[in-house]
Amino acid sequence: MQVLTGHCLPDDAPLPLYVWGSPDDWAPYCSQIEFKLAKFLFEHAEMLVANPLLTNHMDLYHVIDSMSVGAVKWEHFKITYKHNQDEPKAPWMFDIYDVWYRDPHQVIHNLLGCADIKDEMDFIPYWEFNAASDQRHWKDFINNPLVAGATLVPIILGSDKTTFSIATGQTDYYLLYLSIGNVCNTTCHAHCDAVVLIGFLAMLKMTREHANTQVFHKFKKQLFHSLLAHILQSLGPVMTVLETVLFACIADYEEQVLLSCIVCKWCPKCLAHWENLDEDALWHHHKHTELISRELGPLTLWDEYGIDRDIVPFTIRFPHADIQRMLFPDILHQLIKGGFKDHLVDWVERYILQPLKAMSCRMSVHTFCAFLEFCYLDALAHFHSYCEVFWNAQVVTTFSLPWQHAMKHYPYLICQFGALNGLCSSITKSKHIKAVKWPYQHTNHFQALGQMLVINQRLDKFAAVHADFEKHGMSRGTCLSHVLVNLEQYTNKTSNETNHNVSNNQDCKDGADEPTASFEEDPGDMDNSPMDLATKLNIPQLLNILRCFLQLQLQQDVPNLEDVPLDECPFYDGCICVYNSASSTFYAPSDVSGLHSMNHKHIHCSPTWRNKGPCYDCVFIVTNPHVEGMLGLDVTCILCMEYPCVIVCWFDHIGDGPDTCTGMWIVCACNTQDIAIIHINTIYHAAQLIPAYANHQINPASIKPNKSYNKFLHYYVNKFADHHAFEITS
After folding, report:
1. 237 is in which domain, residue-wise?
2. Helix, coil or strand: residue 616
3. CA–CA separation, 395 vs 418, rounded Å?
4. pLDDT, the chain, mean
């Protein structure tokens, strides 16, 4: 037996004593009710109302962050490209790439101590004996007497990209997951906490002209391996004593090509040539790769062995690690999506367009049967025999396909990894929802990574604390049973009080205040006069516009405001409170996801937005409430908000209907002097405009978002921004 430091204990040493905490110690919470309430509010209700236990959301976050169990802090480092002086320069060479990760060694120790999955882990190898000879089927590969009896922890890594598409853009994340081979495979597939997110890898962004350069591709590949080596560096010392070992990598074929440093269309497991993958070939081995890399040139390695010598795999820095042997065929992408959907189904679709023959039809059915049988039994030879029907029908030109070739290695690798249903990429993809997608939806979508890290850390703390309370037997029963027990104790206590004066109690008043809800608005600039505001906005006629607006509000029955002399309009020279944002709440019967179909949108009008330039949103204004759709609406750009009115710049409709080609309405910007003040109640919904580029030669770097409404003549009213905008403009 070994302690965490790796020192061996005597065989007769007693187990370390576990110090049990108090069954009533809910710290940092006061009781079971407060713990379960905080967990419910953070994970499920996603809101917080005023209550006696938690004052507001900041109080909730403070209590969660004070939990000390189960937290492996996120660490951060930056990486840049080290370019040579003589090579051509590109914008991506000067970018700084941020990487966030958690120490994998600490994560592994947390997994080994996780009470939720302790019964689903194997701490010693499984011994299988031959019933006839009483001999073990598999040999003991740990021959080091210093680690005899120790628990070996195989490490399983998984990397995968995921995309969040929203109306205004696309955000990509490159995720790194970790699990351990001691956990049963069924537990990994059961969406438990046995698979942990340990890193957000850097995502490279580049212009189209530099995307296909050889220098960029080399940097992109080597960056991936350098990041893995840096994140996993804490495992290097413990791998020298076989405490842990890099065991497997979960990846689809594209990721396997990147991990194994090979050329696309080659096999990452064997040395078969890409033009004839199904021929018998030797297995890849890192020592063989190192040898031929020293002896052969880069072109020979690329053309004859499918090896990219310019890339150094991350496993070279770790003992007992061979990247080619760590790769496990991916059932989801290689077998189901690749071999079945992309190949076999596609062949049949092209095959049925040809004249059919009875024998050929039966052969194609046999091919499907053989493929499906291979998923459960070893019927690969039948599949290769029957699929010749597609070759004879000239549906396909080659069967040398990496996704299908991977099936050849499945029987051997299932025995090697001891996983019948595979270390499939579905394990990591199922974690995207909890680890990334759910946290992302609860951010403001601007520089969301930092917010996602905090949410993930709080979720991990809840899981660890809940498991700790379960281990102490503190989570038995429900909140209702806990209240009933306390109520019974309180009743017994009050019934035993002898000096109880009812009359005095009637005169007493409860000193506790009732819960109240309050809110505080950010009023922005308080000291603006109309003249100051006109100067800041560069609108000299603002005072006259304000007088006309006040006249209209006071006498809304005036048929024509232009007939009223300006001198007769009200004059205002007091302070004006300017707001930088507003929330528009509206009823949307088509959207049942909100509270009784109620929804809200934020509208921004800020001189400084996210530490960059200003942000002036567009909105739909109701100009004719008796007409539905865009015929009763106009589009304006908000220049300033001063409750209960806003200063806007108008856009004019072009035509009486939407564009016949795109189905979207087209508007054009009015004269910059066409400014108006309108009541905030006339705002209907946020709007989004897309420039009509036409034949303009656009340099994206020269156009700032806040200046885009001044650079083009016409704009499309984006009906696809969300389903509310679609209903409004259709």
Report:
1. 74-248+430-441
2. strand
3. 37
4. 75
